[in-house]
């Protein structure tokens, strides 16, 4: 059996100015994202952040994708 590690970002809220209707470009909408990522670490011991996945980087990726959608 593999030893998967899981990182979860729950209820991450973004405000974005895009949508189907023109008023959505002006008023914006709130979006809530839930993300779960599982992975198998390369080694059995996590000694530093470089040995795992940085949840702040995941947040940045979500935020960048949200901004790009606008």
The neighbouring-strand order within the major sheet is 1-2
State the end-to-end CA separation. 42 Å
Q: Uncertain regions: pLDDT < 50 for 5+ in a row? A: none
Mean pLDDT: 83
Q: What is the helix/strand order?
A: EHEH
Q: Which of globular, elongated, flat, extended, rod-shaped describes the shape? A: elongated
Total number of helices? 2
Q: Main beta sheet, described?
A: 2 strands, antiparallel
Task: Name the beta content range.
Answer: 25-35%
The helix fraction, in percent, is: 25-40%
As a whole number of angstroms, the C-alpha radius of gyration is 16 Å
- Overall strand count: 2
Estimated structural class = alpha+beta
Provide a descriptive summary of the structure in words.
The protein has 70 residues and is α+β, with helices and mostly antiparallel strands. It has helices spanning 22-27, 55-68; strands at residues 5-16, 29-39. It is elongated and about 50 Å long.
Structural key phrases:
70 residues, alpha+beta, 2 helices, 29% helix
Question: What can be said about this structure in brief?
Answer:
By secondary structure, the chain is an alpha+beta fold. It contains 2 helices and 2 strands; from the N terminus they run E-H-E-H. It has helices spanning 22-27, 55-68; strands at residues 5-16, 29-39.
């Amino acid at each position: 059996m593999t030893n998967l590690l899981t990182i979860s970002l729950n209820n991450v809220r973004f405000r974005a100015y895009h949508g189907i209707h023109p008023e959505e470009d002006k008023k914006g909408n709130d979006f809530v994202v839930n993300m779960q990522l599982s992975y198998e670490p390369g080694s059995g011991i996590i000694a530093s952040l470089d040995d795992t996945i940085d949840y702040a980087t995941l947040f940045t990726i979500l935020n960048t994708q949200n901004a790009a959608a606008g």
